[in-house]
Give the backbone structure.
Amino acid sequence: MAETTDARTKLQQLQERRASILRHGGEDKIEAQHTKNKKTARERISLLIDGGSFVEYGAFVKTRSTYYGLDKADLPTDGVVTGVGTVNGRHVAVYAQDFTILGGSLGEAHALKIVKIQDLALQSGIPCVAMLDSGGARIQEGIDSLDGYGRIFFRNSRSSGVIPQLSLILGPTAGGAVYSPALTDYVIMTRKTSTMYITGPAVVKDVLSEEVSHEQLGGGLVHNQRSGVAHFLANDDEEAIATARELLSYVPQNFRELTPKEQASDPVDKEDLSLRDIVPADANKPYDMKDIITKVVDGSQFLEVHRLFAPNIVVGFARIGGRAVGIIANQAKFMAGVLDTNASDKASRFIRFCDCFNIPLLTLVDVPGYMPGTAQEHGGIIRHGAKLLYAYSEATVPKVTLILRKAYGGAYIGMCSKYLGADMVLAYPTAEIAVMGASGAAEVIFAREIKNADNPDEVRAARIQEYKDQFSNPYRAAERGSVDDIIDPKDTRWRISQAFDALENKREIYPEKKHGNIPL
Ligand code: HXC
């Protein structure tokens, strides 16, 4: 009887301890968090994880740091909730920093909890999702917090290409806190409530005498639009977490697996006559490449990555015939879809992510070239543009390319042409595959004739037309085998789907090496 009572008392003690852990940093801190339109760490986890599937690890961990009496302070979870649960029925490892506890700052115990969950994710081959809301290195813990970041960065890097890693920035992240997200595959930021910077406005003012607000320096919009550090911009925590769930649906658990195939929402062999009318034959007329994408993919569902950064190229995930694919497409609507430094970086990183995780690549081409001029040359267009060549050449996943209209010069090669390893190259009858556009070409190769002519305008026009007749079409390329087939636009969906079906078991042996050296 006494034993039963004792066991009950112990159970009660456990329940009390758990209840105290669930109180975060206290009612006032939770309220402050809610007033800022931010959720608590546990609310965020319950939005991410399928109902009831979350199991917490290390809830009882406390700091052992004696600096400034930290060990005597009540810091439940040491400011980070860690565990495992399912998203869309598949396991993920997750950690969520708790701003209500010393501003989510990262001390030794906090870091070791994150490390444990990272190790578990890596060893079990499941994605790792981080939800950050932190004042950075816990100042009181000095070297222990700095080393904590070192351990986390090390694991982020070692896990890269093995498991997908996502970071959601849901509050401030400063100093060390920004580099772990930067090492992960995707960064999702909230518009008004998140910031990322290596050092805040106060230090910027001190060092550079520059006045800048938190948001101007490192807000969600800045990092989505200008720096390219973030890939998604959400209005609030709910939207950010919903984006993470959607993103996870397109990726496999690890590099050895394939993304589960879903039932296609509409038939793949459906003809779509409206596709004949989207791409204007006039190479100078803009149109929206996303109109093509949404007509070709299942259920018009396209998850665009980096939507606000380098909009001259579009990248993102969709399904075709139920199979997840990564799409890279020149956007004729912005700067005629030219490839510049940012577009090259954006596409290359996306291609490498897809290749790491066995996601086939669909490339839609309408590109006038690499962007010329001093700004781009001095900005390193050669170095950045080379990344695209490298990323496509290195990728061993099935690669299908469709040339819709312009495919000129180096950019034709760079947008996954046959000899960068495309397995299937299709072209519309409107495709123009040439070293450059007709008027530019005529100005070079017929320059002397035009200059010496009595009627230079007429000669120029005639030569341009002659060049167009010869080169501004896909037939030369098809004769050489650089294009595998020229298709009626109405058949786009089933021809792409058929190509991916045929390539399903593609295996490519890579030359033996430690790793390559992409021009960073
Ligand atoms: C310890 C911290 C902390 C930190 C915040 N807190 N940051 N405690 N170490 N780094 C505590 C505060 O003292 C406060 O405690 C609580 O968290 C909430 O912070 P507030 O300042 O009241 O909140 P808010 O006004 O919302 O401002 C949030 C903030 C600000 C912008 C993040 O706290 C801030 O600027 N913190 C310092 C950021 C920073 O410089 N971190 C170090 C980066 S260096 P109480 O008890 O009052 O609630 C770094 C080096 C690593 O990370 C490099 C590795 C490569």
User: Anything to note?
Assistant: The pocket of hexanoyl-coenzyme A is lined by residues 102-103, 105, 135-140, 146, 149, 172, 174-176, 179, 200 (CB under 6 Å). The chain has three domains: 37-250, 273-431+473-502, 437-472. DSSP finds 20 helices and 16 strands in the chain.
